[in-house]
C-alpha cells in the first residue's frame, strides 16, 4: 500500500475516521497518523483494525474503536462520549463507510437494495455528523469530510439506487456546510472515481487499473480539505477520478 503523502501537520488534532478497516478508510487513518494526528479509527469488524494497522494503537496516541455500527445513533453517541472522555475534544470527522450494488434497471431493483444503499451510504454520514457537531460547535471549530462518489453527479442506467444514495451524501454535505460555515466548522466531500482496491481488481480483471485512483491519493485530498489550506472551502464536492 502506498504510504507517501503530502506534508500536513495535524499535531494535537483528534480525528475520527469511520470505516477505517476498509481500503480508503485505512489509507485515510494512516495518513492522518503520519501527519501527527490522534486518530480514532472506527470499524464495525472487531478484529480487522488490529490486523491491518497495529500501529494505530493507544500507545501511539490513537484510540481504535471496533464493533460500532455507524448507522446506529445510540452506538455512535457512545463513541463520541468515549472520544470526548479520552481526548476532551473532536477536531475532525471523516466518513468513509459506503458500498456498491448495481446492475439492474430501477423497476427490477428490489426496494431492499434501495434501503440497503441509503442506509450504508447516506445514513452512515447523517448519524456520525449529527453526533459530533455539538462537540465541534462547543469549541467553535472543526471539519467534516464525507465520501460520496462520481455517480452522485448523474444517474446512469442500472445504477439508480446507488447514484441516489451517493447524491444524498452531496446534498447532506452542502446543507451542513450552509448551516455551519459561520460557526467555524467546514464540511466538504470527495467524489472518487473507480478506486484501485483488491475487490475492484477481482471484479474487473481486464480493466486498465492504471487509470483508477489509489486510496492514498484520495486520502491526500481528504487531508487537504481538513487542513487550513482549505479554510475558505465550504460545501464542495471535489472530483478525485484518477485518469478515468
What does this structure look like?
This protein has 244 residues and is an alpha/beta fold. The chain has one domain: 3-Layer(aba) Sandwich (Rossmann fold). It contains 7 helices and 7 strands. The longest helix has 29 residues, at 111-139. It starts with 13 loop residues before the first strand and ends with a strand.
- Count of strand segments: 7
Order of helices and strands: EHEHEHEHEHEHHE
- Average predicted local confidence, pLDDT: 96
The CATH superfamily is identified as NAD(P)-binding Rossmann-like Domain
For the sheet with most strands, the description reads:
7 strands, parallel
Please tell me the total number of domains. 1
Looking at the structure, what is the overall shape? globular
Please write the CATH class name.
Alpha Beta
**Regions with pLDDT < 50 over 5+ consecutive residues?**
none
Approximate strand percentage: 5-15%
What is the alpha-carbon Rg in Å?
Answer: 17 Å
CATH-level-2 architecture: 3-Layer(aba) Sandwich
CATH fold-type name: Rossmann fold
| Straight-line distance between termini | 20 Å
Helix count, DSSP H or I runs of 4 or more residues: 7
Strand order of the largest sheet: 3-2-1-4-5-6-7
Helix content: 40-55%
Amino acid at each position: 500500500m502506498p504510504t507517501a503523502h503530502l506534508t500536513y501537520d495535524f499535531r494535537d488534532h483528534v480525528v475520527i475516521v469511520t470505516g477505517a478497516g476498509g481500503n480508503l478508510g485505512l489509507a485515510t487513518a494512516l495518513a492522518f497518523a503520519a501527519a501527527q494526528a490522534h486518530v480514532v479509527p472506527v470499524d464495525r469488524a472487531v478484529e480487522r483494525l488490529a490486523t491491518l494497522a497495529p500501529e494505530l494503537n493507544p500507545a501511539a496516541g490513537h484510540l481504535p474503536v471496533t464493533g460500532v455500527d455507524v448507522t446506529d445513533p445510540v452506538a455512535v453517541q457512545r463513541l463520541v462520549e468515549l472520544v470526548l472522555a479520552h481526548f476532551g475534544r473532536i477536531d475532525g470527522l471523516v466518513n468513509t463507510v459506503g458500498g456498491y450494488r448495481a446492475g439492474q434497471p430501477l423497476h427490477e431493483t428490489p426496494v431492499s437494495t434501495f434501503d440497503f444503499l441509503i442506509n450504508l451510504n447516506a445514513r452512515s454520514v447523517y448519524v456520525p455528523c449529527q453526533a459530533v457537531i455539538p462537540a465541534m460547535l462547543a469549541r467553535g471549530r472543526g471539519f467534516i469530510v464525507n465520501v460520496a462518489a462520481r455517480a452522485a453527479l448523474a444517474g446512469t442506467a442500472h445504477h439508480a439506487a446507488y447514484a441516489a444514495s451517493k447524491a444524498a451524501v452531496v446534498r447532506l454535505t452542502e446543507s451542513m456546510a450552509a448551516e455551519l460555515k459561520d460557526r467555524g466548522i467546514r464540511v466538504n466531500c470527495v467524489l472518487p472515481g473507480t478506486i484501485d482496491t483488491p475487490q475492484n481488481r477481482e471484479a474487473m480483471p481486464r480493466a486498465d487499473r492504471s487509470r483508477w485512483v489509489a486510496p492514498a491519493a484520495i486520502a491526500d485530498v481528504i487531508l487537504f480539505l481538513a487542513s487550513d489550506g482549505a479554510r475558505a472551502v465550504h460545501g464542495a464536492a471535489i472530483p478525485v477520478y484518477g485518469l478515468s
